[in-house]
Specification:
By secondary structure, this protein is mainly alpha-helical. It contains 2 helices and no strands. The termini are far apart.
Length: 77
């Protein structure tokens, strides 16, 4: 789950083929109750302190690319 409230960077996660990537609404993010239930799965895209958050499509692309890179770009060669 991608959130600005996580401590672990998205590059520190070991992605597997069966992983799901979860993103919240661009305006509100993921519900706090969901974040509390799944604290061990939260990931953050590192960014400067002057930036509040990234556009949802850009965030999804960044995390998805890292997951694909780690899993060898299955089906893309």
């Amino acid at each position: 789950m991608a959130t600005t409230k996580a401590d672990k960077p998205h590059t520190a996660h070991f992605y597997r083929d069966e992983d799901f990537l979860v993103f919240g609404k661009e305006t509100a993010g993921l519900p706090e109750s969901l974040l509390q239930e799944h604290k061990d799965t939260l990931l953050r895209i590192p960014m400067g302190s002057a930036v509040r958050s990234l556009n949802l499509a850009n965030s999804a692309a960044i995390v998805l690319y890292e997951a694909l890179r780690q899993t060898g770009f299955p089906g893309l060669y």
